[in-house]
Structures are given as structure tokens and as C-alpha cells.
Design a protein that fits this description.
The complex is a heterodimer of chains A (about 110) and B (about 525). Chain A has about 110 residues and is mainly α. In chain A, about 50% of the residues lie in helices and about 10% in strands. Chain A is built from five helices and two strands. Classes of the chains: A mainly alpha (about 110), B mainly alpha (about 525).
Chain lengths: ~110, ~525
């Protein structure tokens, strides 16, 4: 069920695992919020590339890509995605990109 | 400090805070020195909104009653729903076995000894399989059947809102593995009672869990899959899998879609596509290599074999099963075949018999006998040396205990895995992975505490014992778990206890072991660490 999180003057409706509920609420402040949670000091071009790829895919397909697809589209191996986002592609990168939590038997 | 205490049946109605609690020292010991963290608390945001009065967990989101009317409403709706469970018109699917369970239990409590939740929790009274059933039975005798002298003959129960709330929550402290039903000398089915209570909450009261309902069966019926993959995305993803794994394995294959008149319509759990694509690739490689006439369907709900209704709701169940059977009818296939998913086996091959109308009763089968036939046929060349690492086999409850499919998997691993060893007990007497009945897809709040400390504990003990001759990080080990749900539970549990790092322990399905041994495929299909 929804909870509201306030950050830098913005408020976000999130689920129990802290994923944004509605992608339309995404804004740059959200990235800053998750960045703090993830313990990432400074975002670099590679972080931004992952986020852009995830968002483009989500806008087109209504779902996050398979991890292998993300790896292909960014050119980053899974191991490197973990270096960029310590919680991994789902709990780290997808969350920061403002995608809702995956559902079903995944 | 140990939190064990005596809990009486009538305590369920008491005006107290929670009734049960499990401390780390109460937990069944494991054959390993794993650090147990303290049990995470239920977050305030949850306990403010929902009635959390059973134990240290909240799975079913029952809104806290705020007024006297709310309280009465909970009781009245529950009783209305319960009455329907005992009418043939409303519950032709499960009435017979439910009545048997209500009328003939001898209270021998043999069921308790068989239950991994009872054992792993340090024999906490609350998690006895018969605790929940006994409360339910007393309500039935007193309020539904209105048996004369029920209070004296069967024991009294006070049906108030607390009883209802706790019983609802307690219905989600069962993996529905049916080990207790198997051991019962009379044939009482405590797991069914848990499931039928869930059904009252869903069908009568509109209360269920978001993972199974809003984001589960509803997505499947609206979008086509609980994963939210629509028909275009799923085909796109499988096409990607075909290309990616053709490259990786050096074996060119293509997954067929919507082939009219094919012999077999294979339905995967679509979660495999997103989370374990190697399973999808392995099926396609094996079927192509063996020259099987088969297809996937891109029809709504027919490319995802899941049917979460099996865990909580007959109506959602029937809606899904009908869509899947209609897709098969449209293609004119000879049969439907289920991939490596246990609850999908239960749903479509067993329970669907009770809801599908005659024209939709297309033959429905498990994939395991066919896989065995293929492996034994000599059509594909294998090198078992490629699987020369310790392998044990997990038996998904719905495939083994429920359906009795025991030998095909074993004939395959015995032929292809030189270091295969059984867990004990196994086959029909297996233990649940701990993810059964929906837990495997729940990560909400502190639900993982229950999954890892209690529900999955017995399986973890079994796995570690199966590898007692090769423990530690020096030897790579493999748990063959041919079920998406079981794999989800194992992935999360192995991560929690750092079993890849500490034990070089991985898990995957059965088809992966088959492809890993195929001579025509590049060595190394199974990986302990992903390198894509």
C-alpha cells in the first residue's frame, strides 16, 4: 500500500519496498533520493545511461527490460551494473529510474 | 530469549495484542553456523492501517476495524462466506474434502509432526497445521452446522472480529504443501482449510494480498501475464532469448509461436522469461533437437502458466484456466504441456478438471515424462562428464506429492549427472521449498523473515545435508529445482545466507542440466556466476 515520502520539496507515493508507484511522479529529485539510499556518491555518465535506457524501454513497453536486454542496450555487463548500482539492476537501477517494482514470479 | 508459550485454541478470540512470537533461539538448528539477524518489525505504516494481532508478521491486509459496525461487518461477512463454502452450489470444487476434514479429524496431531513450519519455528503452537483447522472446525459446528451441544461436543469458540482477523492472517502461515494431508490417517486436509479461508476473504470480503491479486491474477487477466508483459513484449523477449542463447550456445534455434495444429502447446511460467531466460532457451533447444511438434501461444494469459487463483480464489482461478484452454482450442493442438512450474501443474492439470466445460477439456500434461522420453530416446547426444559436479534434486510439492510425478526427473538426472544424490526425505515425502502458496513472490515489509527463518528452513537443512561430503566454497554444487516458485525462494534464501560465496551453491531447473550435457551445445551452459 502506498506511503508518501517527502524529499527536497517533492512528495512521492511509494510501495513498501520504496519503489515509486506511478512513473509519472518521476523527477530529478527522485534520483537524488534513491542515490542517497543506494550509497552512490556521485552519478556519472554510465549511471545516467542506464537510467535513460530503462526509462526509454519502460515508456515503450510498460515494463522493465530483462536484465540481459539491459546489458545489451547499455553495453555494460551485469557485473558492471552491480558496480554502478550496488543493489543491482532491479532494486537499484530500476528503482532510481522511477520504474515500479516488478510483479509476478520473477 | 525464547518466546515459546502455550497457546490454546480459544486464545484466538482474546482481546490481547499478538498471540505468537518466534525468537532466534526457538528456531530449529541448522547444520551450519549462519548468523541469524533479529526479526525485522512490522513497519508502523502497516500496523497503523491493518489489523496486526496474530504474530510478528503481516501478510493479509485486513483494514483495522474502526467502529463497532466495522467489527460486526467482519464477522458477518466471514460467516456469510463460510456458509457458501459448505453449499454444493457455491463450492462444488472443494466441498467433499472440506466436509471430510470438518467431520472426521481424530485430533491425533500426526499432522503437526509432518509440518516444516511447526518444526522450524521450534514447535510453536500457533503454527500447528491443526490449530487453524480446529478454530475453523469449531466455528463450523457452532455457527454453520449448528450442531446440538456443539460447545460441549466439539469445544467452544467465541466468534468475534479478532477471531476472524487472526484466522485470516493464519491462513497465510501455511505453504499449502499438503504434507500434513498426506500423513493424515483419515485424509483430512489442513492445507485446503488454509486455502478455503483465503477464499472467503477474497471472494466474500474483497481482501487478499496485492502480490497475488491486484498485481498478480488481475494483471494476468488484463495484460496477459502477471509479469505485465503484453503480447508484443513477450514475443520480443523470447525472440531476444532465441538470438542471445543461439550465440552463446552455438546452437541455432527458434521458438515457435502460434503454430496451428502443432502437437503440443507449451505454457511457461512467464516469470522464467524475465528472471530465468536460460530455462526458456533450454526448452526450445531440447524440443528442436528432438524434433517435437510444439508451439507457444501469444493469446491473453496463455503465454503465462501461472494461476494464482489456486492460492486464494476460485473465480480468478476459473477465469485464467478458461483463457489458457481456449488458446489451445483455437490452435487445435493435441495437448497442453506445462513447463517447470509446480502450481501451474496443480492448476491446469488437476484442479481445472473441476471447472473446465467439456469442449475445453483438452488433454493437459506435465513436461517431465516427455523430457525423460527425449533424453532416453537417443535422439540427442549427451556427455554426462559436463555435469560432473554434485547435484541434488528438489521435488516441487505440486508435481511430486500432488501428482505423483517422481521417476521421470530421477531417470534424467541419474543418466546425466554422475554425482547425483538425493535429499532425505524426497519424492512424495519431500519438504516444501518454503516459497509455496505465494510467499516466493512476496518481499513486502518483513515477510522475508518468515520465508527465510521459518518457511524455508527445513529445505535449507535438507540441501546442506545432501552436500555434507563437499561443503565449503571449494566445490561447485547444484540444486535442481524444476519450478519457478521454488527457484524464486531458493534465489532469495541463498542470497540471504550467502550460499554462493560460502558454499559455491547454485540452483536452476532440470532442462538446464539436460542442455548443459548436450554435445551439440558449447560447454558451460550452466554458470555459477553470470558473465553476460
Amino acid at each position: 500500500m502506498a506511503e508518501t515520502v517527502e524529499f527536497e520539496g517533492k512528495s512521492f507515493n511509494v510501495d513498501e519496498d520504496g519503489f515509486i508507484l506511478d512513473f509519472n511522479e518521476f523527477c530529478p529529485e527522485w534520483i537524488q533520493l534513491v542515490k542517497k539510499e543506494e550509497g552512490i556518491e556521485e552519478l556519472n555518465e554510465e549511471h545516467t545511461k542506464v537510467i535513460d535506457v530503462l526509462q526509454d524501454y519502460y515508456k515503450k513497453n510498460g515494463i522493465a527490460p530483462m536484465v540481459r536486454v539491459l546489458s545489451k542496450l547499455t553495453g555494460f555487463k551485469l557485473k558492471h551494473i552491480y558496480e554502478l548500482f550496488p543493489s543491482g539492476p532491479g532494486k537499484g537501477a530500476c528503482k532510481m529510474a522511477g520504474l515500479p517494482k516488478p510483479t509476478g514470479c520473477v | 530469549m525464547s518466546k515459546k508459550k502455550m497457546i490454546k485454541i480459544t486464545d484466538i478470540s482474546k482481546n490481547t495484542d499478538k498471540l505468537a512470537s518466534v525468537a532466534n533461539e526457538d528456531l530449529m538448528p541448522l547444520p551450519a553456523d549462519f548468523e541469524e539477524k533479529e526479526w525485522d518489525k512490522i513497519p508502523e505504516s502497516t500496523s497503523e492501517k491493518y489489523a496486526c494481532i496474530l504474530d510478528d508478521l503481516n501478510i493479509l491486509q485486513i483494514p483495522k476495524p474502526l467502529t463497532k459496525e466495522d467489527e460486526e461487518d467482519l464477522v458477518n461477512k466471514f460467516i456469510d462466506g463460510m456458509r457458501k463454502l459448505f453449499s454444493k452450489e457455491d463450492n462444488w470444487t472443494f466441498l467433499t474434502i472440506l466436509e471430510t476434514t470438518m467431520e472426521h479429524c481424530a485430533k491425533c496431531n500426526t499432522c503437526s509432526e509432518s509440518c516444516h513450519l511447526f518444526e522450524a519455528s521450534g514447535e510453536n503452537e500457533m503454527y500447528r497445521p491443526n490449530y487453524r483447522t480446529e478454530v475453523f472446525r469449531r466455528i463450523y459446528k457452532k455457527y454453520i452446522k449448528e450442531e446440538p451441544f456443539a460447545k460441549w461436543r466439539s469445544g467452544d469458540i467465541d466468534l468475534n472480529w479478532r477471531t476472524v482477523v487472526r484466522l485470516g492472517e493464519l491462513a497465510y502461515r501455511c505453504n499449502i504443501c499438503r504434507r500434513c494431508a498426506q500423513t493424515c490417517p483419515i485424509g483430512a486436509d489442513n492445507a485446503l482449510v488454509a486455502r478455503e479461508i483465503r477464499k472467503i476473504f477474497s471472494q466474500e470480503m474483497g481482501i487478499s494480498t496485492p502480490e497475488l491479486h491486484e498485481k498478480g491474477s488481475m494483471y494476468q487477466l488484463k495484460i496477459g501475464s502477471s509479469t505485465q508483459m503484453n503480447q508484443i513484449v513477450v514475443k520480443d523477449n523470447v525472440e531476444f532469448i532465441d538470438e542471445d542463447f543461439s550465440d552463446e550456445t552455438g546452437y541455432q534455434f527458434e521458438t515457435p509461436w502460434d503454430v496451428e495444429g502443432a502437437d503440443i502447446l507449451l505454457i511457461h511460467n512467464a516469470g522464467e522469461i524475465m528472471a530465468w531466460p536460460e530455462n526458456i532457451a533450454a526448452f526450445s533447444i531440447i524440443f528442436q533437437a528432438a524434433g517435437i511438434s510444439w508451439t507457444l501461444s501469444s493469446d491473453l494469459a496463455a503465454y503465462d502458466s501461472i494461476n494464482y487463483g489456486v492460492f486464494y480464489d476460485d473465480v480468478q482461478f476459473a477465469r485464467t484456466a478458461i483463457l489458457q484452454a481456449q488458446a489451445a482450442q483455437k490452435l487445435g493442438v493435441k495437448k497442453i504441456m506445462l513447463g517447470e512450474c509446480g502450481h501451474a501443474h496443480k492448476a491446469l492439470t488437476v484442479i481445472a478438471d473441476r471447472v473446465l466445460p467439456e469442449p475445453l477439456k483438452i488433454p493437459r500434461e506435465s513436461c517431465f515424462p516427455l523430457l525423460r522420453d527425449i533424453v532416453m530416446s537417443g535422439k540427442i547426444k549427451f556427455d554426462p562428464e559436463r555435469n560432473n559436479f554434485p547435484v541434488t534434486l528438489h521435488d516441487p510439492c505440486n508435481i511430486t506429492r500432488l501428482m505423483g510425478i517422481i521417476k521421470p526427473q530421477r531417470e534424467i538426472v541419474e543418466k546425466l549427472c554422475p554425482q547425483f544424490r538425493e535429499m532425505h526425505p524426497h519424492g512424495p515425502f519431500n519438504y516444501c521449498c518454503g516459497g509455496g502458496s505465494g510467499y516466493a513472490i512476496m518481499t513486502r515489509n518483513n515477510i522475508p523473515e518468515w520465508r527465510f527463518k521459518i518457511a524455508g528452513r527445513k529445505k535449507l537443512e535438507q540441501i546442506l545435508n545432501a552436500f555434507s561430503d563437499c561443503r565449503g566454497p571449494e566445490t561447485k554444487k547444484y540444486v535442481c529445482a524444476p519450478c519457478s516458485n521454488c527457484k524464486g525462494q531458493m534465489r532469495d534464501m541463498f542470497e540471504r545466507y550467502e550460499l554462493l560465496e560460502k558454499e559455491q551453491l547454485t540452483y536452476s531447473g532440470l532442462v538446464e542440466l539436460i542442455v548443459n550435457a548436450m554435445v551439440d551445445v558449447k560447454p558451460g551452459f550452466i554458470k555459477w556466476e553470470e558473465d553476460y
